[in-house]
Amino acid sequence: MDANGILQILLYLAVIVALTPLAGGYMARLFEGRLTFLAWAERPIYRLCGTAPEREQHWSAYAFSLLAFNLVGTLAVYGLERLQVWLPLNPAGVGAVSPTIAFNTAVSFATNTNWQAYGGETAMSYLTQMAGLAVQNFVSAATGIAVAVALIRGFARHSAQTVGNFTVDLTRCVLYLLLPVAFLTALFLVWQGAPQNFDAYVPASTLEGVHQLIAQGPVASQEAIKQLGSNGGGFFNANSAHPFENPTPLTNLVEMTFLLLLAAGLTDTFGRMVGDRRQGWAIFAAMGLMFVVCVSLAAWAESQANPALTVAGMDSLVGNMEGKEVRFGIANSAIWATATTAASNGSVNAMHDSFMPLGGLVPLVDILLGEVIFGGVGAGLYGMLVFVVLAVFIAGLMVGRTPEYLGKKIEAREVKLAVLAILVTPLGVLGLGAISLLAGPEAIAAPGPHGLSELLYAYASATGNNGSAFAGFGAATPLNAILQGVAMVFGRFAVIVPVLAIAGSAAAKKTVPPSAGTLPTHGRLFVTLLIAVTVVVGGLTFFPALALGPVVEHLALFSGTLF
Amino acid sequence: MTVHRPAAGTLFDRGILQQAAIDAVRKLDPRRLVRNPVMFATAAVALAASILTARGGEHFGVMVQISAWLWITVLFANFAEAVAEGRGKAQAASLRRTRSETTAKRLAAAEAEDFEAVPASALRAGDLVACETGDIIPGDGDVISGIATVDESAITGESAPVIRESGGDRSAVTGGTRVVSDRIVVRITLDPGESFLDRMIALVEGAKRQKTPNEIALTILLVGMTLIFLIVVATLPVFASWSGTAVPAVFLAALFVTLIPTTIGGLLSAIGIAGMDRLVKFNVIAKSGRAVEAAGDIDVLLLDKTGTITLGARQAAEFLPLARVNERDLAEAAFLSSLADDTPEGKSIVALARTRYGLTGGGEGMHFVPFTAQTRMSGVDFAGSSIRKGAADAIRAGLEGGLSAASARELDHLVERVAKTGGTPLAVVRNGRPLGVIHLKDIIKPGIRDRFATLREMGIRTVMITGDNPLTAAAIAAEAGVDDFLAEATPERKLELIREYQQGGRLVAMCGDGSNDAPALAQADVGVAMNTGTQAAREAGNMVDLESDPTKLIEIVMIGKQLLMSRGALTTFSIANDVAKYFAIIPALFLASYPQLQALNVMGLASPQSAVLSAIVFNALIIVLLIPLALKGVRYRPAGAGTLLKRNLLVYGMGGLIAPFAGIKLIDLAVAALGLA
Question: Is residue A457 very low, low, confident or very high in pLDDT (cuts 50, 70, 90)?
């Protein structure tokens, strides 16, 4: 890793730290209802939905609204995919999507995963991309943020019955936050060279005389929300490695910033809304430290040359450039890979499958830790708060008091709900992964441990609602399309429901004022503990599987064995 | 005060251990095991492993050993629980010895002279019994007539007999105590089997033990961990099959049991029982485990001033004469008037006068006037002089001619001065002429200030409750170092104060003895009733202090905290252990397919079989090794939460990470040396 690379990583970190309070402050004002300049646009929407915006919901009603809304959204996308051949805005004349892939894709976008078992330019019409996928990009992101906000309210409130109104939270999130930012970003991307049109694909002949079909379409508008809302589903199959999605180093920096912006900002929103900003920064610190370690490891691993290629006569100084865009290089590919998997985004600007074993381990670990290193918008914060509940429980015992967090006692009910949420990742990744391996091992392309890494990555990505992939895994087989769909639904909603229940039960509790006997949850000690709990839970769960996959692959590669 | 506390060295009494070993096997009953999910899972896996082993196969010798150690793990956990229960039972037995079957003298009516001799077990609530000198009181009840001295040492360990009389706050008697003098009539308040002693015995024996809220929460976490590891281990053979490795099922069973939190799972109930037990050692009986747990959470401690913060009796501190009165004259008058005064206050006046002015003896022909509730003063008449001392207002009311305005003002001034410093003024008159004021001072118990400082460190706020006026209360509060005080307290004010604190989310502890304390005791989160108190108070509180020492609340809080800390520390230890176990077992399982994994065998264990065996042996032995810690509890030193967490994380987190590496390596060496695998 050269000085230039380190400098770029530091610059990126500085940008995130600087923007966190800005985004956090804006969202805090938004969700405390202090921003009203778009009230004229809100009111007709509420009237249309038949919602009384001032009437708040009990956590169970909130969860019901959320589930119903997501079900309808999934069905709508499924319908569009199946019927697109008869619908307008299909200049390339792509046909109807097969039922299993349509199911997989509908679920994928509704759960903010954006796992793509298809190639965007060859499978989806412009209408499906815009009215189906892009809409879900907005509302699935808003859904995640709404859950996080409901949980924040749970901790902030005192003996309350309600945690907010889902329709209002969703609407305000889209209107005040996602739409304006995405709009401005789309303009910026158009300026930088990303296409935004409804034109048919352009045939071209290359210098070598090969005929190509250049795909285009409304790229810039989808690109913006794809990054901002931790969606990750690219317009093109190559995702952000494609020059139309990510034309310049400047767009690369902006897109990388948007990977973490809202997730990082929400930590400060949390701090502000619970009335103690140090609490937000503590969570930011825990996430940030893990991020720095991951990004450093990935950058270091990728700057090592593949010994097999060195033997074959490659220059070892450039590091591992296989599967990377030369215009981005190692540092930016490592940052992107770490940020996109940390943030449950899943967009890529380099191919993770071609990473060195340890470099590829980093994205995998990011996902397996439960998508809590910043994580998906909203999902990262509420996922981390689940770990906080567990950390506080154990730490509270060790200081000899019934554990409490932000004045809320952590009792059997909260522990039970947190445990339910924690069980989701192992069940989805190991359980469904094992079923897939038993039922259809032919989906794995690579032999040996690398093949296992591909499988683990695919199910980790689906369960963690990430959406990035180790290429090579046959995710489009009907079996995997369905199992992956199940993993995505399970990974999303089996966490959201317990989290909302925690929100409800925390809101109903009295707030105990802190005393000298209370464990402070904003200091270095707590941050360390939180990291330890996160890493230990993830590590203990996945150590055997990782040992059989990337770890053995790494050990083998450097002893000269390839798979 | 002589208090019989069981000697500290009885942690491993031979008899208890033998009985526990037998009980450990008895506890294999699935209906009992199911109460402890982690151990139930272990037993189920042990059973499966045994069946698989019986079918034979490769590594038969190692498989037999592994299955055996799986069962031993369960037995060790049962043993830990049985030892804790055994210790409780030993204490219960010593309590029970005091209650050999007694014969009761049942009366038909309170005034009846004739009694009917019935066995104590035949008594029902509402029965009246007579107890005379030498009788054992047959059951818990209230004295409805008479007064007697009662030896309660069997229950409290305190050798000095106590007074029990009808009405008021000293009317409760406990079954099993002995009347030393006089006769009382007692109305039995409880049916047999429900008496105070019965409940105590049931609780320390662990028979009636129910899981406390925090224990339930922790159990849920442990079940969650168990489920996670179930998923991990169940899917492992599938992932292994990709590389063509077949993992022996018994090895998987071993991996599963070493990973699930057996250490804390096995010791959890022992920790709970031992917590109750430690309270009993302090001569405090908790009526439920929930109360012990709540004690660790206490934020506010309400303490009665008298007897808790100050010594029960006040002491003379100085003589304050009026102008134109010689201090020595005042001292002499006070001295003479107090010679026959047997109260501690009176004695202290005599003592002060002696040391300050060397006054001695009295004279012949002194006629002492005792204190009565009507006159509210006492004194002495001799050789034509009459000396009286008493509360200033009583003295003034008693002066026939009244006071001159100047004297009255001066006297008022002195009285106020004493009150302001927290003292009680006692005016002295000789032949109708006021001489001055004796300053009676509340004596703060030695060392109490430090205890309050300790409590503050623990994050607990202390509030002094007193009937004194605010002026006096403030002065004493400042001197004792309490955080706050409630002056001119009434039972209603006390109850209101507790509610106020609870409304703000605080947990409140208090102790009390009188019937009028009962509502407050019931309202408080931890209410410690004094054993000398009334039946009503003892019913309302959730703990009873047999020694009736209110400062013990501090120890109770510490025991509560220790209980939670022991659970947290062992949970952390248990989970941290898993890291080393992975490094032992994972390379062992897959070495055949991936020789590169030898790099993970950081302990350099001899062979895959030996690695698995060593890990499971370590896992079982650690339970036994930690039994003393579970029983004694993690050391608690009052400190802020951060300091405690740092220390425990270091000891039990880091310790738990490192210890098994060394332990498993040592066992592996032994296994290899003995040729077991």
Answer: confident
Q: How far is B10 from chain A (nearest CA, A)?
A: 26
pLDDT, one tens digit per residue, over B256-274 is: 999 999 999 999 989 988 8
Q: Which residue of A has its CA nearest to B586?
A: A544
β-strands B128-131, B115-119: how paired? unpaired
Find the angle CA(A373)-CA(A379)-CA(A383) to the nearest 5 degrees. Answer: 65
CB pairs under 8 A between A and B: 206
Of A173-187, B34-48, B493-507, give the lowest mean pLDDT range.
B493-507
Q: How many whole angstroms separate alpha carbon B420 and alpha carbon B493?
A: 23
| β pairing state of B508-512 and B300-304 | parallel
Give the dihedral sign, CA A518/A522/A524/A528: positive
Pick the closest to residue B610 from B633, B585, B593, B638 (CA basis): B585
CB-based contact A397 B223, cutoff 8 Å: no
- Cα(B436)–Cα(B634) distance, integer angstroms: 57
Task: Kindly state the tokens that stand for B205.
Answer: 């024996």
Query: How do residues A398-455 score in pLDDT, each as one tens digit?
Result: 988 888 899 899 999 999 999 999 999 999 999 999 999 998 888 787 778 888 888 9
* Token code pair at residue B196: 């105070």
pLDDT of residue A60: 96
Nearest C-alpha neighbor of A261 from the set A553, A505, A559, A20: A20
Name the B residues in 498-537 with CB < 8 Å from any A CB. Answer: 504-506
Q: What DSSP designation does A444 have?
A: B
Residue type, B22: I
Query: How close is the nearest chain B Cα to the Cα of A427, in Å?
Result: 7
Q: Which residues of B touch A396 (CB under 8 A)?
A: 564, 568
**Least Cα separation, residue A474 to chain B (angstroms):** 16
Residue type, B642: G
Identify which of B443, B466, B462, B156 has the alpha carbon closest to the alpha carbon of residue B312. B443
Token couple for B669: 């060496």
A 10 A CB-CB count for B514 gives: 19
- Is residue B140 part of the annotated active site? The answer reads no
pLDDT value at B3 more than 50: no
Nearest CA in chain A to B557: A400
Does B267 touch chain A if contact means CB atoms closer than 8 Å? no
CA proximity to A339, closest of A249, A257, A433, A436: A257
Q: Which pLDDT value is given to residue A428?
A: 95
- Which residues of B are less than 8 Å from A393 in CB distance? 217, 221
A154: its two tokens: 């749970």
CB A470 within 8 A of CB A456: no
A131 touches B: beta carbon within 8 Å: no
Report CB contact under 8 Å: B239, A397: no
CA distance B475 to B469: 10
Count Cα neighbours of B283 within 13 Å in the Cβ-side half-sphere: 22
Measured in residues, chain B has a length of 677
Report the C-alpha gap between B20 and B23 in whole angstroms.
Answer: 5
What predicted TM-score, i.e. pTM, was given to this entire model?
0.85
Residue B565: CB atoms within 10 Å = 26
Here the tokens at position A544 are 């055997």
What pLDDT does residue B179 have? 86
**Helices assigned H by DSSP within A96-134:** 99-110, 120-123, 126-127
Provide, as residue numbers in chain B, all residues whose Cβ is less than 8 Å from the Cβ of A434: 234-235, 238-239
pLDDT digits (tens, 9 = 90+) for A129-147: 888 888 999 999 999 999 9
HSE (CB half, 13 Å, CA atoms) of A383? 37
Catalytic one among B277, B304, B468, B525?
Answer: B304
Q: Where are the alpha helices (DSSP H) in A229-346?
A: 249-273, 277-303, 307-311, 329-342
What DSSP designation does B522 have?
H
Q: What is the spatial distance between Cα B48 and Cα B43, in angstroms, rounded to a whole number?
A: 9
